[in-house]
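Design a sequence for this backbone.
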């Protein structure tokens, strides 16, 4: 069985081989730029690792894995524009380095390039893989739309939030795993168990991201702490406050913090602490993680072949705070 880092090395080599020679150059340069920024590459790695439960000829699954990574980076390019973000992985975002219109059009081209990669999958499984990929890409768009709509609402329920992060984050992880399984010739049951594993781990991952944004160590988390608070972002934590008797106290901070952001972060964190939301969130994270591992345990291969996937899931979830 290949380890996570070994699959990453394979993926990174293949991405380095991607050369966009089409013209105009100004359309494709931003694609090369954002792919060269790197990233965790977790999604394509999951495709290879799911495939590797059954087979090891990665040439079969690499087109699907690369398609997922190109698509994921397309979503980041457009997300950065919608969020008016200045930095991505320590570098200027595409709309800052170029302009808004270039970010839109180059992003559109990336979406098309992802389908060009996917079309290289063996024709025997291509229809099933294509249907899954297409459904997933649409679901991610739905999740992003819900996320934007939630910015204007203060009555978002916990169930609505869980559904939003399922669509925006979890389904692409699940798709990555299921595509790898399909291409490897896994049974329908195994492919679905791996999909469900991805959904639950994806939910746990996003909930942990919410938690680390408030309680994490910026040196190990990889970004500044408190960003969600400063942006009044709807997260599992803030939504629970808005459903409590501390609602008005939190709302009073929504228009504050421009002059002293640390004061706002500390005040909102104090509200979270008073409602024991850190502990409540951790409990829910552990529950989704447990459900995910239960799904993985049902996959019909030897347990020894699942060790690397379990280790990756654990590393994603229990990132240093």
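Sequence:
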């Amino acid at each position: 069985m290949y380890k996570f880092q070994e699959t990453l090395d394979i993926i990174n080599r293949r991405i380095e081989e991607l050369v966009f020679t089409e013209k105009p150059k100004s359309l494709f340069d931003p694609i090369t730029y954002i792919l060269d920024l790197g990233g965790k590459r977790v999604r394509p790695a999951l495709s290879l690792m799911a495939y590797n439960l059954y087979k090891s000829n990665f040439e079969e699954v690499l087109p699907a894995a690369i398609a997922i990574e190109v698509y994921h980076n397309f979503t980041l390019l457009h997300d950065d524009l919608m969020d008016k973000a200045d930095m991505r992985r320590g570098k200027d975002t595409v709309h800052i380095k170029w302009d808004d219109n270039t970010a839109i059009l180059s992003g559109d081209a990336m979406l098309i390039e992802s389908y060009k990669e996917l079309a290289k999958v063996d024709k025997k499984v291509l229809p099933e893989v294509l249907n899954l990929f297409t459904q997933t890409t649409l679901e991610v768009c739905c999740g992003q739309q819900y996320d934007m709509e939630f910015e204007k609402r203060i009555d978002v329920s916990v169930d609505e939030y869980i559904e939003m992060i399922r669509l925006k984050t979890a389904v692409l992880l699940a798709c990555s795993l299921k595509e790898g399984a399909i291409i490897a010739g896994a049974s329908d049951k195994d492919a679905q168990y791996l999909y469900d594993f991805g959904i639950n781990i994806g939910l746990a991952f996003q909930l942990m991201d919410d938690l680390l944004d408030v309680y994490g160590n910026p040196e190990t988390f990889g970004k500044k702490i408190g960003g969600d608070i400063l942006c009044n972002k709807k997260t599992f934590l803030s939504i629970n406050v808005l459903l409590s008797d501390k609602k008005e106290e939190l709302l009073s901070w929504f228009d504050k913090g421009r002059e002293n952001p640390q004061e706002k972060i500390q005040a909102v964190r104090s509200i979270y602490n008073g409602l024991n939301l850190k502990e409540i969130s951790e409990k829910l994270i552990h529950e989704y993680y447990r459900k995910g591992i239960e799904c993985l345990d049902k996959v019909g291969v030897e347990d020894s072949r699942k060790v690397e996937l379990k280790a990756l899931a654990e590393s994603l979830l229990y990132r240093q705070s």
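The chain is about 70% helix and 0% strand.
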